[in-house]
Design a protein that fits this description.
This protein is 26% helix and 25% strand. It is built from three helices and four strands.
């Protein structure tokens, strides 16, 4: 299994989620986050509201899926989220060693099913 974590423009979230759902993504988590990285001095940054407002608000989309679907999911995200301008975002893919569904204890691939 793989975890795909994508940081992208807020304006692209609906379109990316629709495309992922249409292609069969098993589940998607979307959150609003603030990007602190490129162009910011980490030692000057605090979580003070006045400083947080200076950072760009972006979306984080997370998908855990079977290995076979991961490349398709990445390509969907990249194709759908791209504007061609700086700040389009980034996608990370990492292995998932184990998944356990809390409700019934099923594990791994079965945990990704309804």
């Amino acid at each position: 299994m793989k975890e795909i974590k994508a940081y992208l423009r807020i304006s692209k979230v609906d379109e990316v989620i629709r495309a992922l759902r249409t292609s069969g993504a098993p589940g998607i988590t979307a959150t609003r986050v603030h990007g602190v990285g490129y162009g910011y001095e980490p030692y000057l940054f605090t979580l003070a509201p006045s400083e947080l407002r200076k950072t760009p608000e972006v979306a984080k989309i997370e998908v855990v899926c079977e290995d076979a679907f991961s490349e398709e999911a990445v390509q969907i995200i990249v194709r759908t989220a791209r504007t061609g301008d700086p700040g389009d975002g980034i996608v990370f893919v990492t292995p998932v060693e184990r998944a356990v569904k809390i409700r019934n204890g099923v594990e791994d691939s079965e945990a990704l099913q309804r």
